[in-house]
Design a protein that fits this description.
CATH class: Alpha Beta
CATH architecture: 4-Layer Sandwich
Number of helices: 5
Distance between the termini: 23 Å
Structural class: alpha/beta
Radius of gyration: 16 Å
Helix content: 10-25%
Largest sheet: 9 strands, mixed
Length: 213
């Protein structure tokens, strides 16, 4: 795939994708974090007139990633659904239609804080749920960034981003023992991160990944 950044973590090569995903070719696995499906519906239920455009674009972007990588396993690092109100009939129908288009892909969800309130979609969306830390080879799939002995943590929750002169942008944030993914959902905010002595920051810049000097 073009416009990616390759990293060696725990002896494995993974690729950071501008679609805000991590691809692990050795195990045909894609990781994403924090899609927050149904967030726009949640706002509408609260009386805020937000059009439902985000989750359609996000599902198409996810389909593009699965098509390009030919992944057989998708690991979602928490906050699949934004809220119980957001999991309305329209949101569920869109998610089920997308799932029906990808029957060959096994999906594992590591429940996040929003999933606790929204309800786990395992039964109606044909996916498995596992508590963190969930071991996948040398990696520990988590929602919350943390330290797991003898493993590299892949996590979400923080929605890492950087503030530049004219705008903010999502980023991947690599610290010792932990790679925090940007929020996959396009209708989310950022938790601003800053460079440090033991960190690396990879900005999602349009269709490219650019490491912050």
């Amino acid at each position: 795939m073009n416009h990616t950044v390759s990293l060696q973590l725990a002896g494995e090569i993974v690729h950071l994708l501008p679609e805000r995903a991590v691809w692990w070719p050795h195990r045909d696995t894609v990781f994403i974090a924090d899609p927050h499906f149904g967030k726009a519906a949640t706002f509408r239920h609260s009386g805020i007139p937000v059009p439902e455009l985000a989750h359609h674009a996000d599902l198409q972007r996810l389909s593009n990633v699965l098509h390009a990588t030919r992944a057989t396993l998708l690991v979602i690092l928490g906050d699949f659904l934004h809220s119980r109100l957001g999991a309305d009939a329209a949101t569920k129908a869109a998610l089920q239609a997308w799932r029906n288009a990808w029957p060959r892909v096994h999906i594992t969800l590591i429940p996040g804080n929003h999933d606790r309130g929204a309800g786990l979609p395992g039964e109606w969306l044909a996916l498995e749920c596992h508590e963190e830390p969930y071991s996948i080879g040398p990696f520990a799939a988590c929602h919350y960034p943390q330290t797991v002995p003898d493993a590299i943590v892949l996590a979400g929750h923080l929605h890492p981003g950087v503030r530049m002169e004219s705008c903010s942008a999502p980023c991947f944030h690599l610290t010792t023992g932990c790679l925090t993914l940007p929020a996959f959902g396009s209708f989310t905010g950022f938790g601003i991160v800053r460079p440090g002595a033991a960190t690396r920051i990879f900005i999602v810049d349009g269709e490219e990944i650019v490491e912050l000097p």
